[in-house]
## 1
Amino acid sequence: MKNPSISTGIAGSLDLAAARKQRQAGTRRFTAALLALGMGLALSVGLATGIGRMDIGWHTAAAVILGKLGLSTPIADRTTEVVIWGIRLSRVVLSGLVGASLAAAGVVFQGLLLNPLADPFTIGVSTGAAFGVALLVMLGVGGSFLGLSPLPLGALAGALAAMVAVLVLSRESGGRIRKESLILAGIVVSTFLSALISLIKSLDEESLSAIVFWIMGSFSGRGWIHVGFLLPYAALGLGLAFSCHRELDILALGEEQSHHLGVAVSRVRLLLLLGASLLTAGAVSVSGVIGFVGLVVPHLVRVLAGPSHGRLLVLSAFTGALILIWADVVARVLLPGGQELPVGVVTALLGGPFFFYLLKSRRTRGMW
Amino acid sequence: MIRVEDLNLGYGERPVLTGLNFQVNPGEFVGILGPNGSGKSTLIHALSGLLPARSGKIIIKDRHLDALSSRLRAQILAVVPQSSEVRFPFPCLEIVLMGRYPHRKRLGSLTDEDLLWALKSMRRTTTVHLQDRPVTEVSGGEGQRVVIARALAQDPQILLLDEATSSLDVRKKLEIFEILKILNETQGLTVLCAMHDLNLAALYCRRLMFIKDGGIFRDGPTEEVFTPDILAQVYGTPMEVIQHPGHHRPYAVMLPLTPGELEENLSEVAQA
């Protein structure tokens, strides 16, 4: 039976040709979607950078960016350059990266836990990461070592601890995890940790503003240095998640069948949890808790691109970036008089109703 | 092909099977029979590497089962579970292609050979027409045939079935066992199936292994062990075995419990 000369009668080769064509059509659709999203993303970065309190034309914004990238001679004055490059563009890039990280984390959590309601926020991992950050701020651990902040590490520890706590709480006697109890455990853990964060805030007046600044779920005042903090976490997390995308598909068959198909289940699961926690921790440590991006984006993309996790991860990362860039633009310009909304408020306003729709929807139940 | 030596199995503190010794040769078609809770599924779980042995050895093709890597094990051994629920609407072809996982390189793309194997497996299980249908939308019998196609796509030498047809109607059961029979006879596939249906087992399995009270009660060619005596002892109820005049295979007929036997049962229950 090994190395068979596979019989390909005429019927066989017809089947093969048809199946191959079918799959190639899928690949073409994926490539087209990727191209469209990529162009949309590039366009959005430009547009979002041009929008803000100080009225700078898009023409000037483009000129500054191109100048900075060394593609044309710098023309603008110092102030304009700082606003465009130092403040706006860094913020747009950061919101894009955070959006991509959260959406990819959502794909992994949903696939791994076989739960349509799972995302970094609903299962308490985000709050865990925020708690880790708050604890470090209270203890006065800040600053940066060799350009790396310890805060993301605190966020990672918090995220992993919260993940473990939620899994332990929601595990029933048979070792099965029911989807409702997982979300309930997530709520329990995140409520508890939120209370602890409040406690830290009231115990330690000095760190209050610093903690509030981190936790609120906002990109206000973030810059390139935060992009630098997030980048290694995002890259590693995305890499881990993507390298296990095929296993993530198979894990949808359940633990036993994945084992039968030759997946080293425990190891793969650990890698994926680590990847998703890295993504969440990185995102939370630079922008605080931003909910629902990781919930909504994978669902939207799954409806359009199908369940295969490799494609889902890539397309969700792009879509998440796109959505959070624009959510942040809304947060910046919505209130009159120059005040800013935390971007977490914007995503919650959009995502809350969607969460409700998922809970209610028959169609989605059929899909899962 | 499979050699089991002094194998002890159990969950937590509770022993289920003790002191198992047997050997399965290439190309055998073995049925594992026994009452509920006798440990049929436990044995299948252990043979598939899902349940670690408490003590003893399982040797697959001259190698210790737990020394095989996940991938290598899945290249030799495929398993069809009782039922499988898939949570995502993967097309059936993608499900069958998952069977190629142990043969594919870590990040290598899908080859024509993988696709051919998947299609060939689907032809053998008459599921080609389902290839584009979401697996969440096919019927129970179709779904089970897709799962068997996936197991065949693994290109295994041993196929383990755990009550794989228990939830299907008569016609679907027969279809699946006909497929297994053909694969067994033409490809030399070694088949072990844990099952409940005595007559289905007698019809297709050439060797039967009866499990009772934590051990192997009888093990031998179907014609020798499928007897009224043994069946009555294994299942605790009187049975008659008749040679079918058409296909010349034995079949079992259950007899109603006599009042005496029923009382005996009831008093046992009362004592427990």
Note: Residues 10-50 of chain A form the longest helix (41 residues).
## 2
Amino acid sequence: MGVEVRRSAQGVTLELSGEWGARELTDLEAQLAAVDVHAARELRIATAGVTRLDLSGAWVLREFVRRARAAGAAVSFQGELPDQLRLIDETLKDAPATPAPDAAAEASGALSAIGRYAVAFGRDLVLGLAFLGRATSVALASAGGRARLRPISIARHVYDTGITAMPIVALIAFLISVIIAYMSAQQLRGLGADIYVVDLVAIGVLRELGVLLTSIIVAGRSGSSFAAELGSMELNQEVDALTATAVNPYEVLVLPRLLGLAVALPLLTIIADLVGLTGGALLCRYLLDMPLTQYVSRVNYAISPSTFWVGLLKAPVFAVLIGMAGCFHGMRVRGSARELGRQVTQAVVQAIFLVILADALFAVLFMKMDL
Amino acid sequence: MYPALEVRGLVNRFGEQVVHDGLDMEVQPDEVFGIVGSSGSGKSVLLRTILGLQRPQAGTVRIDGSDITRLSEAQLRPIKARYGVAFQQGALYSALTLLQNVQLPMIEHLDLPAAALDELALLKIRLVGLPAEAARKYPAELSGGMVKRAAIARALALDPTLLFLDEPTSGLDPVSAAAFDDLVLYLQQHLKLTIVMITHDLDSIFRTCNRVGVIVDKRMESDTLERIVDHPNPWIQAYFHGERARARTGAARGT
């Protein structure tokens, strides 16, 4: 199989035989490379022995012929020029053989990278503001009775983002409160200040951790699902179809999600608070041998009436931030599956970032207000 | 010599719903075989079965003589390298450029140097009538007609002898569809391909197919194009002699 070289008075004859296909390509290329094209003035190629010649095989042969001609040999074929070779010649006859270089690859310096990043960031900012504006105007319109609220849709989102998240939120709240109680018990016991474990758990869970952890879980669960859902709808032109039927996608897709989440997240936070306090109670009972009644009265003593509300107040704000990040990135998906993955990632990262940033702002605000 | 593709006694069932019940089909080398059937008659399921994407309840599917319904993934690998598929929506990998799309099967199946990889992939892209500039584009940047051509370029990546086309002309305007038929014929003649295509497009059938298989009543009636139009089955009659088909059928018979 392959290439056989015969030398005679007239020149060199190459007898090709066997299968000339994509599978044998590497081998054939090596055999042809071994043929010394410079030694021959006249090169004849016999293809009668070839049992199968596909495009890849023909391409290798063509490349060889080009090399031989460039080296000054007169190349001819014995019998007909194989059809496949003619096909390649025909395909490649006009236009360059190599594609134009990538425009993106050319400008790859650090400076241009910074520039591109800045431009992309600016564009993101404008798009984000536009999204915020649209969502707000739809929300105002529905509050003013000019756009419909969709209770069934909202209820579905309360179920999807709230009810189904209950087990995982409860579990995480329980574990976190146990961890806080356990860690602080170890430290405080040495000082004989066991009782402050209760303060730490109660205030920590109610003010910060209950709502914060719930929001982070919901950002992972629902922020990503909003982005993926809207993104694939966008890819499937469903959003265009809505717009074309004069239905505002912000009214039917974005607003119910935001409102649903704004209902679900406070409810989840209450559950997290409850379970967190229960977890603390269990640990105090069994690790510190603190009677339940003492735990309850200490909790009552430790927290002020505002502690619970300070935590709960943050929930709807976080919900809107998570929903906005999810819907915004979902609506931005264009074109491809990779883009979908990128936007979903962005949605979750941004949602968590915004939640923590807002929590920090709340902390400063509440401190100034002496709450 | 084996038929390029031979299906015998194929049964496909989904729960209660029987899609194929003893379907036979045979495609000879160098043929362009059209598969026709009403919507929901199981054309896509048939294609999926032939491609080994789904195992039938009974029956055999032979590609070049080997029964793919009984082979393991590893044994299927060399057989899958012998056919190419152009899916209806193109199914181009959206994260890769067109050039990379064509190169992917080559990289997976062949051991080629990088330069050969680029040139061969580009050759396939040019062969289906796409400009070289398209090679660097992502599927999302290609028009519908270009995606269809690109899908064929990728299907040709491994120089297959058997090519499956799923509704190649659907969604194309008549002029593009006619150009596409020409491309199919051109490739078939020059590359000596066996082509199996699912289509609804009568123009396409009359232009490109030698033989046609019609899925009726969970089986397939197949014959040459000239003879199948006179088949007594009412659906086939309606298909080839309906309002939309009349002019064409007359032309095929030379009347």
Note: The first strand of chain B starts at residue 5 and ends at 14.
## 3
Amino acid sequence: MTLILQVQNVSKRFGGLQALTDINFELPEGEILGLIGPNGAGKTTLFNVINGVYRPEAGRVIFRGQDITGLPPYEVARLGLARTHQIVRPLNELSVRENVTVGACFGRRNYGLAEAQRIADEVMGLVGLAPRAALMAGSLNVAQKKRLELARALAAQPYLLLLDEVLAGLNPTEIAEMIQTVRKIRGQGITLLMIEHVMHAVMNLSDRLIVLDFGQQIAEGAPAEVSQNPKVIEAYLGDPRLAEQLGMVDG
Amino acid sequence: MISSSLRQPGLWLSLLLVAVIGAIPPLTQSATLRENMFTLLMFVAFASSLNIMLGYTGYVSFGHIVFFELGGYVGFYLLSAQKWPLAAAAAGGGLAAAALALLLGLSILRLRGAYFALATIGINEAMRAFINNFKPFGGPTGMSLNFAVYKQYGGPTQALWITYYSVLALTALVVLVSYLVKSSKFGLGLVSIREDEDAAMVMGVRAPCAKTWAFVISAIVPGMIGALFFFKNGNIEPGDAFRLHMSIEMIVMVMLGGQGTLLGPVLGAATYQQLRTYLLTSPIFKNLQLTFAGLSLLVIILFIPAGVVGWLRARLPRLRRVLE
Amino acid sequence: MLNQLLASLVDGLLIGFVYGVAAMGLTLIWGVMRVINLAHGPIIALAMFGIYFLFAGANLNPYLALALVAMAALLFGLVMYGIVVHRVINAPHLSTLLATFAVNMMIIGTGTAVFTTSPFNVDFDLGRLTLGPLTLPVTRLIAAGASVLVTAALYFFLYRTPPGKAIRAVANNRDAAELMGIPSSRVLALSFGLGTMLAGVAGGLIATFFPFTILSGGTYELKSFVISVLGGLGNPLGALVGGLVLGSLEGLIPVFLPVNWVPVIEFGLFVVILLVRPSGLFGARQ
């Protein structure tokens, strides 16, 4: 079982704010690892450290055996690590097809334009955006933009995909569809690290969970275990709705 | 995104326009028309090259004229002081401009948005002040060309025609290069930088490298044209060369025609330049050329920000392949 | 030598105060709405002409004329915001840069046609004052003093009056301010007007001791850029200090190098600061 990602003693500070303290975990190839925690816990910050947007003050990030700590995001992307953003970032004045082609061109493999366009068409089919291929990305609705974000990342043919709240803002039907898509992605051999707030989804999809609170890792393990962990319950009691979803508190 | 087939109608329309403009002087054998078309072609080349940074990459440079200026000075120096042949001197000018762009790429291209724009103004002014003090380039009085140099090219009239055809060729070249960039993977990277630089980098676009290359490519032809222009002029001095307002007019031309399109800068430059010439010769508007330019720019920004070609493409989707 | 240095330094500092006021106008507009007013220079020049015509034509004391010119500049800013800036304020930076630049071109174009490029001079001399080893023109001393007063007035306005606080709120977070019921468009218009007013005041003061043309504003606009970046974009007090720094440099450098090198050093410094410490010496308002 090869480890695709190793995060070792990572800490990140912004001025006076300690955003991440001593984060440590390993991600085996082919797994789906869920990253949960109350708002402001530092989950997106962790993603930003992993893919090179931020440089950590301490610690290392090792991807497929290579130390990628502090590498710029474009180098990390070219090594086969793709991510989506919590607040989607479509390339507005380009078409959906062009957006996805960018992902294919500059991702893991250095494809030429024609080959990249072919891959883009395939990926758009996978996520269900094919009918909208010629539309301007800026004209899509939120759910479609989320799928675009995902398509772009997939077109890069990554080994590891970081999903940042890919279900946020979707209605129940859309959520169900997206869960199916995520399963298909795993089926293609891509390892997933997902930040999620939609508890039933992340509980269902993840093989393991990591819980962050105030930048610290407070629990790690199988979903069933983690949801019984007293520290996790305490962290989420600050958010009673979530605690209820986790099945911790009687309704 | 357009296919990279060289049979794209959009490319040929733009080249046709350049050819039509270019054919007027040889057909009429008129010296006045040659000078007018020379200026017009020059601006078409400037606007098209600026479009690579402004329209494709989304970086506003207020100092694009600096490449023309530096190329002019280096080319002139090589021609007059070092006695190089014209073609080599022009190449030297282009190379100097490219070198400056590379240097700038490594430094000020790190800046975004308004900071970058301010820096380009600073660069232009610093360059002017520097050349003003630079003795080998003649300082504030500049340099002059010994009239005998023109004999090497068959006399002054012949030399003027040679420079004309050279500029025509360079203009066609820059339009072709602009097309090749736009239809390439490199160009796709540039427009993704324009739309969202950070997202582009997360997707693997090597932004610092791509921007610098775009800058270098946009600098070469203006540099070469600078050398040719001042050769034709016979002399060069800082006041002549460093015209900030020309940078601005270039931006107006690109915006008027439609930034980010191939045809836009060509059309915008041709239209603007013709209007400008008309204004300069009309008794009423003679002094109001700049006012008129400002007013046009304002109207474009407020009401048709996509420029003429952009507006047409939105209204006439079927013509999109032609109005590239 | 030391006397000469001191004289040059004080000379530079005095004019540096006025530079600071000019830069304050630019930096205020940037700080509140992230717009670089490229018409800043021509507005300075228009103010200079205003003083000239009120003084030469209506025999008005330049300092009284200054009050009128300041009001006119404020009005100009309000109108300019409404017609030009408001529509593009949320568009990408390029739009506001080009829109304000368009106004610049229109002013310069019309100004050149009407006034030509011959120099104008406000023939106003209040003599010189001797303070120890220094002999200083009174007009410059008054200009420096006026600049300090204007800065104090600006800070009083921003920190002690309701409209001023509204401006600071909008500068901090426009959406939040709107949610609290602050009419952001009006506040933005007012801020823009204040910025142009400061430009007008600076122009008017400079007119009392330097000759000028319609194109003179350009020089002060460039200096304002350099100073604003030096002091931190969005930081008015930083602009004043930046003005003093630039003024001192302008005063001291010609003692050691030919005057022609001053612009090279100014712009070199400008580019270096943009690269090394874009938040300026004192930190920009983010």
Note: Chain C has one domain: 2-121+138-276.
